[in-house]
Specification:
- This protein is an alpha+beta fold.
- It has one domain.
- It is built from 16 helices and 6 strands.
- A 4-stranded mixed beta sheet has the order 1-5-6-4, sandwiched between helices. A two-stranded antiparallel sheet has the order 2-3.
- About 10% of the residues have low confidence.
Amino acid sequence: MKKTLAWAVTVVTAATCTLGAALPATAADATSSAAVTSAAAPGAALDISRLSPEVKALVDEMLADLPVDWQEHRDAAAAKYGIHDTQWADLRNSVINPGDHQCGNTAFRDYAKSLRTGIQDQDLRDWLDVFGVFDIPTYDALLFGSESKSNTFGVNGEYTNELTSESKDLKRFWDISSDDIQLVPMHGREVFSSPERVARALSVMFGINNQPVVLGLAKVVISLVNADPYLQGGDNPIFTFNAFAFSEKGDPNPAGISDRIVMGDGILQALKALGLGDTAPRAVLAHEFGHHVQYEDNLFANTKLTGPEATRRTELMADAFGTYFLTHSRGEALNAKRVLGSEKSFYEVGDCSFSSPGHHGTPNQRLAASSWGASVADDAANQGHILPSLKLDELFEAKLPDIVKPDATN
């Protein structure tokens, strides 16, 4: 199995289904061209003449020092580490009839879109896209982050105790080998305040081994981030709007990255902004740990489904597993109504990208999956018994057709 990123959300690609797709490399030398393929509109070109003189000078400096094949390296690195394996990746042929399902925007998706449109200089935003700047905190956490007692979660560390405590509870609860799963934070300003940290990410992204060159590029990137006050020096949620599980289990060419769950400050900020800060952070972590249950039990491969329906299955299963833990008397023991009615985090991150290979399920399907997980815990005759994960999967597979059945009203 290839390296797999099981993402909850990625705001960099939330505004449109085309964002975050692999980009065709330009044939011309980037240092002598005024146009570069845009991440915001694949196949289109970005014109540096539209930039303010200050930002144009920074972009010119960036292009002058990047290698000729920098776009190829950028795309190869993103593919290798699954950076853009999101529910908003390239569209493919539909395998689900959208007319069969109730599906629409949620407050969560509207919030994500607002982060992109709020950037005052949209041309600057597009150049940050094409240079992969929004991905830098992800590379930092994925490749260089590690679990530590000094780690903090949340911009001000406000979720540290809650999430570190739950991580320990999750490891005790599930019947998988989990001692090696690390809980890693993702911060924005902390990364963009360090040229060295930005440089090591750029080195991976662009294949640059010359340290003076890559350090110079890092300083330019930091200047670009600081060019718009809205970006808050990297603390804007747009940079860290991610939560994902990562494992190299079964990969024939592992990179030596430990199993991990990465929790970005941005997603925690979003949950709070939408009034979901009570139980939602724990729900997101429980969902991501559910993916590690899938890794260990080989549940990603244990299906005949393909494409969007395969991804939807594993995401809805992680919703169900996460809520089973949250509401079980030996898990978080949260009231089901509190989890499902007050928090609604799984519903809010549902999507309508029926034909996307990263389709995670509609809002209604995600709520149905988490509701089912709660019912399994609440309705158990023996409240102190934790179902083996493979047994819970067996029950989920039987329930899945009901969870995803058409629900549109005619």
